[in-house]
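Per-record layout

source: Salarias fasciatus
name: Phosphoacetylglucosamine mutase
length: 526
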Amino acid sequence: MAEFQEVLKQSALHPKPAGLCLQYGTAGFRTNAKQLDHIMFRMGMLATLRSKKTQATIGVMVTASHNPEEDNGVKLVDPMGEMLTPAWEDYATQLANAEQDDLARAVKEVIQKEILLNQRIVESKLETFTLMYLYYGLVTTPQLHYMVWCQNTKGKYGEATVEGYYRKHCQAYVQLTKNASNRTDDQKHLCVDGANGIGALKVREMEHHLQKGLQISLFNDGSKGKLNHQCGADFVKVQQKPPADIEINPGERCCSFDGDADRIVYYYTDSDGRFHLLDGDKIATLISTFLKELLTQAGLDLNIAVVQTAYANGSSTLYLENTMKVIVKCTKTGVKHLHHEAQKFDIGVYFEANGHGTVLFSQAAVEKIQQLAEDANSDDTKKRAALLLQSTVNVINQTVGDAISDMLLIEAILAVRGMTVQQWDAMYTDLPNRQLKVKVSDRRVIDTTDAERRAVSPAGLQDAIDSLVKKYRQARSFVRPSGTEDVVRVYAEAETQESADALAHEVSLAVYRLAGGVGDEPKPLQ
Ligand SMILES: CC(=O)N[C@H]1[C@@H](OP(=O)(O)O)O[C@H](CO)[C@@H](O)[C@@H]1O
Ligand SMILES: [Mg+2]
């Protein structure tokens, strides 16, 4: 129990560094840990208010995610396990940046607007907020999202404990793979890079629930290396190479989590030592084609869409639309946008290219699947498909992208289909691509439209990009201000790596010249 005035007094013990201004973005607050003391305190206050407003349990996740060890961050989890609603992101920013002597006013404003509504606040009799804390200790970000959801739905979808999480997801995995029992130990083997983060500990904790259905070799388990340093999903995706210090045999199936285990990418090296990355786009393709096949077998008329961002490789979009005839949507970067779009379909598969994503099933879809699974009159093919769909609903964490649950689904699909990682990789060939960063004095000068695929300002930038793109075959390029770093991101893809690199460099130069670049002019890639 904490009186308002008492809380304010306490807040003075966690002062805001002078001049520091932070914004609640796609990743919550994220910066060097030294600058976050006041943020942690104030987000505790905001979580209390959000809980009061929604009359529900709210999650508070402290994590540096895929960022370096010296960083930290905090984000709030809404009642259904979703990301914090946008209006409250603004309150978070306001509380974070309020000077100490203005904090009381900022907090009262939230209370007045959201909780007391038209009632007058009587200064000295501010409501006493009773707050129940449930401390889960060290968990992955998606585990917290899952437990908040279970908590607020009174256990309808599962038990709000870490053990409950393992039981539900692993049971579904065992169900999915039970007819693939002739797999060899080699086929069941998977190398997991835990990014020296929480995912590694949790995989170890979970393993026995899998009933030997998966043979995991764990690397970067946090026993020596630094968090996300030369390892993890972000490193592998951006560098397009395996984590340092991992011995992988040619052809061996590997995956990397990020530090808080909400992203996953797969990869292998071939016998020539060439690295093959299976990123979020390949994962979305594997999952959506599996689901589409099952829907056909089950005779269920449910629509299925894949939601991507502009970073999705052009080959994946073409393959999904033209070969697989799946609906494809493109949204702005940031999982909340993808999640929202995916909710519009019976089944929405969403993945960012960096490996953050999940599958959403509408209530109607879940009911239809269940009916068919329980229908005594349906034939064997239909019944098998319905049961597999039902287990897929249970194996996936629908609240948010989840490396562990995504890994279980991917492994199950490969097992059910008897597919190797090489066969999965061969579904389509990625267009060579390159991502670069450009420093500018104020990245807000760049404004975009069409799901960030076109720049509307500064004047002339889009025209410059258009004419550069025309020089190369199968080329595409776009620029956007990052939401998490003080840079402009440049993306280019083209028929060859040389073309993609050259185009990315030329577009970087256009950004540098037209959008107020600082420091040295971008140099061509070696
Ligand atoms: C190109 C890229 O990977 N961008 C990432 C990155 O956002 P930026 O706004 O690009 O900095 O961090 C976000 C939060 O983790 C993630 O949602 C997004 O996909
Ligand atoms: Mg993360």
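summary: The chain has four domains: 4-133, 162-274, 280-402, 433-514. Residues 26-27, 311, 333-335, 352, 354, 482-485, 489 surround GN1 (ligand 1) (CB under 6 Å).
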